[in-house]
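Before the break, one more example. Copy the sequence into your notebook; we will annotate it together after we see the structure.
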Amino acid sequence: MAKLAPEKRIIEIKPVADPNAKVYPRSVKGRFQNWRVIMVWLTQIVFYGLCWLPWNSRQAVLFDLDLRRFYFFDFVLWPQDTIYLTILLLLSALALFLFTAVAGRLWCGYACPQTVYTEIFLWVEKLIEGDRPARIKLDAAPTSARKVGKKTLKHSIWLGIALWTGLTFVGYFTPIRDLLAGIGHGTTGAWEVFWVLFYGGATYGMAGFMREHMCKYICPYAQFQFVMFDHDTLIIAYDAERGEPRGTRPKKADPSALGLGSCIDCGVCVQVCPTGIDIRDGLQLECIGCAACIDGCDQVMDKVGYPRGLIRYSTENAVQHHYGRSEIIRRAVRIRTLLYLLAFLGIAGATGWSLATRAPLKLAIQKDRTVLYREADNGRIENTFQIQLTNASEQDRRFRIQAKGIADIAIAGNGELEVPAAALRDLTLEVSVPAGALDSGSHPIVFEVSDESDPRRRVEGKASFWMP
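Here is what the structure looks like once it is written out:
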């Protein structure tokens, strides 16, 4: 079992009796369990419900791979906007680093999909098979109609949840209503069917069978989390000074008279742990920070009449030096966390400003290189340019195109183009200047495109004009 020595922060590997033994988490009640339930409901309401939310006659959130657009409420992002995806990933990493440095594995314990779906599957398992003792007894019992019936019902519900999860996931890439209609009519594409089954199968396998093994052996975050920990990071801590030596005793016995600590060695903290570890062995790789052991221990302390907090959210320094809550909060503000916070706020602020001031228009210019220039009938020198305008808003817009940078430069025609909502249009422009107005060679020019309904919405693009 992996243990982190507080004074050296070295991970030691301890042998365990059977690392592959099935874990049967016991039900527990308490404030942290309530928070876990709230997070399960919150994350799943968002995940399952957001794809059904209509917005501007379409799905509010949709990664439309066919049309190469990403709809997020009023924002329409195009392939050219992949920088925002990069920034989103960077902000997610910074947020993870910040919360981990301050409060340990909050993500793992409360919001990680593996934790959330394992919790959902456990709810189903406990409803059908009973709590920990009943499940252990059922698994050990010989095959019978009752056992097969319970197992079949449980796995049927698991599969239903998993397939609906896979369907919802694909519904963010193919409009969910079209996807369901296609399934109903048997016209769903092969790739859509594949990803529904793949994501559903992954949910069924990881939440139903792999469970704690994902957190122990597969998840990379569990392996490098301690890089972001220090002695002032909040962790699930067992107060060995108060709890040891542990041992059973009569309910109303005075532990000090028996030479014992507050821990009655009931094993509840181990029984409620979803990864099956003993938190009394110290900080371990397998601990996901769910605080189930805190709720379980607090219940036991209440029953025996001891103060709560034998197992609690604390820091290694706080446990060792007996810091109070105010000191723990004060020490949470340190160089590392401030740097994470400043970087996060700076990038988030700049990104928000960029999105708020982003013009709903994109311009791409390509010089026609088959003919660099030609002399028109009126004696002017012409260059041909291919212009692509993208209307990134969800209203039809009419744009005016102007060329600047050379005296008496002109565009053939009226230089206006109407682009439908969330669409792009290509346009060939003939741009001319008087013959002899410039020296031979390349000269910089600028195309300015403005919205006729709001001239303040405009964008510029650079190009080169060639003279003979």
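The chain has 17 helices and 18 strands. The first helix runs from residue 31 to 50. Try to locate both features in your own notes.
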